[in-house]
Amino acid sequence: MEFCCAPVFEGVIEEEDAVETARALAALGDPVRLRIVSLLAAAPGGSACGCELESPLGLSQPTVSHHLRILREAGLVTGHREGRWVHYRVVSQRLDEIREVLTPPLAVGV
Amino acid sequence: MEFCCAPVFEGVIEEEDAVETARALAALGDPVRLRIVSLLAAAPGGSACGCELESPLGLSQPTVSHHLRILREAGLVTGHREGRWVHYRVVSQRLDEIREVLTPPLAVGV
DNA sequence: TCGATGGATCGATATATGTCAATATGGGGG
DNA sequence: CCCCCATATTGACATATATCGATCCATCGA
Question: Which of A4, A9, A67, B44 would you label with A76, given CA atoms 20 to 30 Å apart?
Answer without folding.
Answer: A9
